Amino acid sequence: MGTGRSDFPNQVNNSLGFPGIFRGVLDVRARTITDEMAIAAAEELARCAEERGIHEENIVPTMDEWKVFPREAVAVALKAQEQGVARLSLSREELYDMAETKIRQAREMVQFLMEKELIPPMPAE
User: Would you say 1 and 60 are in contact if contact means Cβ atoms under 8 Å apart?
Assistant: First the structure.
C-alpha cells in the first residue's frame, strides 16, 4: 500500500512528482500545466518502478532514485509539445540531456553545501 507517511514504506507524495513536472514545464517553457502533463509524469514514474522491480515493501521509487526525475521531465515536456502549450520544441534526447544535467548539478551543489555545513543535512528517517 502507498501512503503519504514517511514512517511507512512506499511513501507517495508530491516530492516524487513535482520536481520532474516543473523541470519538464520549464525546459519547454510551457504556458500551463495540464492534467495530461501530470498524468504523463505519473505514468513515467510507474514505468520506472516497474523496470526496477516492484514488491510489497517497494512500489515506487524513492527521492534517492533521482534518475526518475529527468524521465518524468521528458514525459511532461513531450506532452506539453503534443498539446501545443510548449514554447520550445526539443527532441526526447535533447530534453533528457538538459534535464539530467540540471538535476545532477543541483544535487551536487546541495551535497557540497551540506558537506561545507552551509545548509543542514537531511534529517535521518
Answer: no
Q: At a CB cut-off of 8 Å and minimum separation 6, what does 16 contact?
A: 45, 60, 61, 63, 68
DSSP summary character for residue 123: P
Does domain 14-115 fall under CATH 3.40.50.720? My reply is yes
Mean pLDDT score across all residues of the chain: 92
C-beta of residue 23 within 8 angstroms of C-beta of residue 69: yes
- Per-residue pLDDT at 125 exceeds 70: no
96, 74 Cβ separation under 8 angstroms: yes
pTM: 0.89
Rg of the chain over all Cα atoms, to the nearest angstrom: 15
Domains of the chain by residue range? 14-115
Spatial contact of 1 and 10, defined as CB atoms under 8 Å apart: yes
Helices (H), the chain: 18-27, 35-52, 68-83, 92-115
CB 90 within 8 A of CB 98: yes
Please enumerate in sequence order all residues whose Cβ is within 8 A of that of 37, keeping only pairs 6 or more positions apart, or say none. 21, 24, 25, 30, 76, 79, 80, 83
